[in-house]
């Protein structure tokens, strides 16, 4: 028997995708947050939740523009205008922004998250919150979340 270098040699990738779809792992939100915390502790956060202040190096790079997701269309219109680049204002990057309503509505997901996890998450996101002017909703760092 010839040893395989990796599992991908045994089957095509689509086989693994089908298996994953069938036995799709189910994680609770708390389990996911524990995973996120573990990646931060190991200094290896996934790009989806890494810290902006480490990725964009605001102290090392002099940026001409900083955009925000909440106002991306307007921000890009300004950038394009300043740079003299034609833009298409009919293509809106944040069309659904007007339907967001309460920016803290997602706090409900943290109702069952233990206080210690919320507190530790805060230590990893605090600099980014401060840097971009975001505030935690009231109650996030208290023992109960409403």
Write the layout of secondary structure elements.
Layout: H1 13-22, H2 29-41, H3 52-55, H4 72-83, H5 115-132
Helix pairs in contact: 2-5
Residues in helices, as a percent range? 25-40%
How many individual β-strands? 0
Number of helices: 5
Which whole number gives the mean pLDDT?
A: 78
Could you characterize what this model shows?
Helix content is 39%, strand content 0%. By secondary structure, the protein is mainly alpha-helical. The chain has one domain. The protein is extended. The N and C termini lie far apart (60 Å). The mean pLDDT is 78.
Give a quick precis of the structure.
With 146 residues, the protein is mainly α. Helices cover 39% and strands 0% of the residues. It has five helices and no strands.
What descriptive keywords fit this protein?
extended
